[in-house]
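Let us practice reading a record.
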Amino acid sequence: MKPVVDECLGPFIGPAMGLNRQITFKQGLLVTGEISGNVTVRGILTVSETGKVRADISAMKVVVLGMVKGNITAQVGVEIGVTGRLTGNIYAPAICIRPGGIFNGRCDMGGKEGAQNEEIKRHHTAVSSKSAYLQPVAGSA
């Protein structure tokens, strides 16, 4: 029987794994182990609570629940969860930092490498209206 995580999330870097190179994925990626180098993901990159990434990242969307040291370029947005720690710059049209999340760096919401493209804006609007992504946290207003 295939692991559920493999079927649902696609490729992942497990806790016992570590990569030190430039890697590219054509779909989403879940990181529960360690990566250093450069990472390009055409889908959603999720760094779990146990994940550690020391790399520049380029992805459609990045969710940081673990530790990231490096710059992030995202076409849709970046979300830093309550356990997330990001040290580096963000180039994305939208960011969300949950209470408890830590961000040390600069943010350019004008985007980089075409993040202001009309198709990406339409996708961002659809994602924002269909999920809790970028919605206010109850009691934070």
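A brief commentary: The helical segments are 4-9, 118-130.
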